[in-house]
Design brief:
Layout lengths: L19 H10 L17 E6 L17 E2 L2 E2 H10 L4 E8 L4 H10 L5 E5 L4 H11 L14 E4 L9 H14 L1 E7 L5 E3 L5 E4 L6 E10 H10 L2 H6 L3 H9 L4 E4 L10 H15 L2 E5 L5 H13 L4 E5 L6 H8 L4 E6 L6 H13 L7 E9 L6 H8 L2 H9 L3 E9 L4 H21 L8 E3 L1
Parallel strand pairs: 1-4, 1-6, 4-5, 7-11, 12-13, 12-14, 14-15, 15-16, 16-17
Antiparallel strand pairs: 2-3, 6-10, 7-10, 8-9
Helix pairs in contact: 4-6, 6-8, 10-15
This protein binds cytidine-5'-triphosphate and ribulose-5-phosphate (5RP).
Organism: Molossus molossus
Enzyme class: transferase
Catalytic activity: D-ribitol 5-phosphate + CTP + H(+) = CDP-L-ribitol + diphosphate; D-ribulose 5-phosphate + CTP + H(+) = CDP-D-ribulose + diphosphate; D-ribose 5-phosphate + CTP + H(+) = CDP-D-ribose + diphosphate
Length: about 450
């Protein structure tokens, strides 16, 4: 068994923390993946989790095992770990990884500051990997920091959108029934073919369910089941709930799960996962501007009208960045910075410095759009453009910190109608960059 990574700590305290590097990153992680405001829940049980992550992802058809495939440049498994570790009542998270990927996994834990993780070696099948994880939690492990839990949750490393709510439901049901698992209605009807490749019979769809993850068990039940398992079960079995039934006569409680619990299996699932994450981190935009700025207010109004499903907040960068910390706590990953009174990039630079200090962008790419207004009666167009070309250097520098910066020049004519058109065009460009987070925009100066 692997020791905890350096800097790993005990269970997280409920609620997000803001101070320091780790605080910022994990505050950021508190509710974005769940897509909900995460009120920390309580669970009186001693709970640990085992995450099998030792597969090769054959059906994905790419050389990298799917759990290590990047989504927005971060490995898929890191999203799943983030979803598990934000649940403060899960004491230990044991991850089963193949020997050849152990070093890569340690790197991921360190880079994304995951906590409460222990690594064990995976087996050649999913059941064997899970068994190895369970063994690490057994009482008789010499030199182990892990303690035997009352309830163990088993969850695939490739199901990143697991929420605290379903984890609590399966853990609580496992305490009462001995075993519990998430289910979903079947999408397709299940049929049974005969040896000649023809239909033998079909199952009545409404009477069957798809078994998903997470599942939870009284530790003693599932450990005893795995100890009694045949080699055939360990080789070909796909259902842990069945093992509890077959070997311990425990009938699992089935709990309705959400469609987002699906298992990333094919390449298209990576695109789907990326879209879900992008959508979740684009639900809020913060406009950084001086309260007195009329033109900023107009832009804010236009953005609110054009993006009526998105929460738009605004405010100045206060002393010591207090206001920004508040915004970070509110899970905002998209900033529009209005530069009017000051020299071209002064406000943007201040915002970037705060974002860099907070280390907020470890987990998700943060978008910053530096907005400038073009009123070429006061500054000649060529000089304005020359100044604004600094955006390239600035963008290059902050890209290393996972901050995606682009500039937006908005034409500011006297004519009311033309100004409205420019603002609408600007709002549409802002919305596109925030939604797509496409690196082609980085360092570009967009013109509206
Ligand atoms: N020997 C194995 C095989 C699978 N798994 C894990 O079990 C989970 C669910 O399995 P599956 O989706 O089948 O993953 P793969 O086996 O990697 O995929 P494929 O069947 O397409 O090869 C994944 O997190 C996978 O890494 C594991 O820990 N050890
Ligand atoms: O959904 C599940 C129910 O336990 C498992 O994740 C699934 O059965 C794993 O099987 P495989 O590794 O063959 O895809």
């Amino acid at each position: 068994m692997e020791p905890e990574p350096p800097g790993a700590s005990g269970p997280a305290e409920p609620g997000p923390r803001v101070r320091g590097v780790r605080g910022a990153a994990h505050a950021a992680s508190a509710s974005v993946l769940s897509g909900a405001e995460a009120e920390p829940q309580r669970c009186a049980l001693a709970v640990a989790a085992v995450l099998p992550a030792g597969g090769s992802g054959e059906r994905m058809g790419v050389p990298t095992p799917k759990q290590f495939c990047p989504i927005l440049e971060r490995p898929l498994i890191s999203y799943t770990l983030q979803a598990m570790e934000r649940v403060c009542w899960i004491k230990d998270i044991v991850v089963a990884v193949t020997r050849e990927n152990m070093e890569a996994m340690r790197g991921i834990i360190q880079r994304y500051q995951h906590r409460r993780i222990s690594l064990v070696e995976a087996g050649v099948t999913r059941h064997r990997s899970i068994f190895n994880g369970l063994k690490a939690l057994a009482e008789d492990q010499p030199h182990s920091k892990l303690s035997k839990p009352e309830v163990v949750i088993i969850h695939d490393a490739v199901r990143p959108f697991v929420e605290e709510d379903i984890l609590l439901k399966v853990a609580t049901a496992a305490k009462e029934h001995g075993a519990a698992g998430a289910i979903q209605p079947l999408v397709s009807t299940v049929i049974s073919p005969s040896a000649d490749g023809c239909l033998d019979h079909s199952l009545e769809r409404a009477r069957h369910r798809a078994s998903e993850m997470p599942q939870a068990f009284l530790y003693d039940v599932i450990y005893a089941a795995y100890q009694q398992c045949s080699d055939y079960d360990l080789e070909f079995g796909t259902e842990c709930l069945q093992l509890a039934l077959k070997y311990c006569h425990v009938k699992a409680k089935l709990v309705e799960g959400s469609p987002d619990l699906w298992k990333v299996t094919y390449k298209r699932d990576l695109y789907a996962a990326e879209s879900i994450i992008k959508e979740r981190i684009s639900q809020q935009i913060c406009i950084v501007m001086d309260d007195e700025e009329d033109v900023g207010r107009l832009l804010e109004e236009t953005l609110k009208n054009e993006l009526n499903h998105v929460k738009v907040t605004s405010g100045p960068l206060c002393h010591a960045g207090r206001h920004l910390h508040q915004i970070i706590l509110e899970q905002c990953y998209s900033f529009v910075c209005v530069n009017v009174m000051t020299s071209e990039f002064e406000e943007t630079q201040k915002l970037l410095n705060l974002l860099k200090e907070s280390n907020f962008s470890i987990l998700y790419p943060v978008v910053v759009i530096s907005v400038h207004f073009l009123d070429y009666k006061s500054v000649p167009f060529d000089r304005k453009m020359e100044n604004l070309m600094q955006i390239r250097e600035l963008a290059k520098e902050v890209k290393e910190r996972n901050i995606l910066l682009c500039g937006l020049l908005i034409y500011y004519p006297q004519d009311e109608q033309k100004l409205q058109d420019s603002l609408r065009q600007g709002a549409s460009l802002i919305a596109t960059f925030i939604r797509e987070r496409n690196s082609a925009f980085i360092g570009q100066l967009l013109i509206a």
